[in-house]
Amino acid sequence: MKKKLISNKTWMQIHLYVSLFFIPMALIYAITGSFHIFGVRQNAGAEIVEVKVESPIIKGEEQRIILETLKKNHLKIPQNTDVRFFRNSYSMGNLKYSVTLSKDKAGNPIVRSVERGWYGVLLMLHKAAGKWYFDILAVGFSVALIVLYLSGLFLTAFCKRNYLSASIVTILGFFVTALAVALSL
Q1: Which of 1, 35, 87, 95 is the 20 to 30 A CA-CA neighbour of 163?
Q2: For residue 63, which of 78, 83, 49 has the smallest C-alpha distance?
Q3: So where does this one cross the membrane (predicted)?
C-alpha cells in the first residue's frame, strides 16, 4: 500500500488551525459585507465636519491650505499630513481620520474632515483601502477559503455513500449562483 504524503489526521489539523487563524477575517468580511449590502456605508456614524475655504486652491499649496483651515477652525490635524490627490480632491490622514480639500457642488473650495468608527475602518479595509499588510491577510484568507472549502468537500461530502446527493447539491449551488449573476446583469 502506498503511503500518503499527508495523512488524513495531519490534513484535518492543518484544516482546523488555518480555519481558526482566519476567524477574525471571516467575521470582518461577513459583517461588513452584509451591512454594506443593506446600505450601511463607511461613513455611517462618522463625525463629519465641512468648512468653507476662503482662499482659492493654489496648485502646490494644498497642504498649507488644509492645515491652516484645520487650525483656524480648531479641528484635529491628522497624524499623516502628506497630501495625496485622489478622485478630484486632495486628502491627508488615514482610514480612521482623514481630511480632504475639494470643491462643493457650487464649485467653492471646502475642507471636509471625517472621523470614522470601527465599522467604517473595517469596511474600508474590506474594500482594500488600507495599507498593504491587511491586503496580504485578505489574499491569504481568500486562498485559504478556497482551499479549505474544497478540501473539506473532498474529505467529507464526496465520500462514496454521499456522492450522488453531494454532487446534486453542488451542481444546484452552481446553477443558483449562475442564475443570480445572470438576473443581476
Answers
A1: 1
A2: 83
A3: 12-31, 132-156, 163-183
